[in-house]
Amino acid sequence: MELKVDRTIDARGSYCPGPLMELIRAIREARVGEVIEVLSSDSGSKRDIPKWCQKAGHELLRVVDEQGFARFIVRKAR
Amino acid sequence: MADRLSMIVFSGTVDKLFPVAILASGAVAMEQEVDIFLTFWGLEAFRRGAPQQNMRFSKDFEDKAPAMLALMQQKQVPSWYETLRKAKELGNGKLRIHACAMTMDLMGLTKDDLDPIVDDVVGVGEFVEEAQKGKITLFI
Question: What confidence tens digit (pLDDT) does each residue in A7-53 have?
């Protein structure tokens, strides 16, 4: 099933905690229910982003591995 | 106990200010409070104009400094100051930077001599009292 992404942030090339910080910023600016996608080549994101989503109460819909980076798809839940 | 990270920043070299900024960012991201207490060289690094010019590196890894700085430039890693500034913005009041009153007196500094990112000047007693509210306190 194709997910509807409202906004994509390309944080590739940015180092820890850059991609996470950009995701947080985008989530703050988004409306509840919107879906944000972050592209990250930082290896710390794999652990940081799921942890943050859990803590902050947002829904991590999908993590997709690509060549040299990953896509994190998050829905703003509150 | 509150979710709080307290850091006593004694060092003023770029290689140590980096982890300070990154740890502060991580803590703010995880919705923790952050208190940074600047003393001695840590305070020196926050003099007005200093963050933009400081290229100092720890003496014990001095031989690696040029290569490391070049790598950071090449990979366009944001500076420790920029990282800290962003963390502060994102923290929305959760990240506070305090200057050590004793060091200020010793160096003859006033708040105006410091970078505006510094929130206030406090005594060690107040800082320790605040730090007691958190689980993590680091000396860097």
Answer: 999 999 998 899 999 999 999 999 999 999 999 999 999 999 999 99
Stated as kind and residue range, the H or E segment containing B86 is helix B80-91
Does A18 lie at the interface with B, CB-CB under 8 angstroms? yes
pLDDT above 70 (res A1):
no
Q: What is the 3-state secondary structure (H, E, C) of A11-77?
A: CCCCCCCHHHHHHHHHHHHCCCCCEEEEEECCCCHHHHHHHHHHHHCCEEEEEEEECCEEEEEEECC
User: Mean pLDDT throughout B60-73?
Assistant: 92
Residue B1 reports pLDDT greater than 70 = no
Q: What pTM value is reported for the model?
A: 0.90
Residues found in chain A: 78
What is the C-alpha end-to-end distance of chain B, expressed in Å?
A: 22
Which residue of chain A has the CA closest to B90? Answer: A25
Q: What angle do CA A21, B93, A43 make, to 5 degrees?
A: 15
Is residue A10 classed as helix, strand or coil in its secondary structure?
A: strand
The shortest CB-CB distance from A52 to any of B29, B78, B87 is to: B29
A78 touches B: beta carbon within 8 Å: no
Question: Closest by alpha carbon to B56, among B64, B65, B47?
Answer: B65
In which band, very low, low, confident or very high, does the pLDDT at A64 lie, cut at 50, 70 and 90? very high
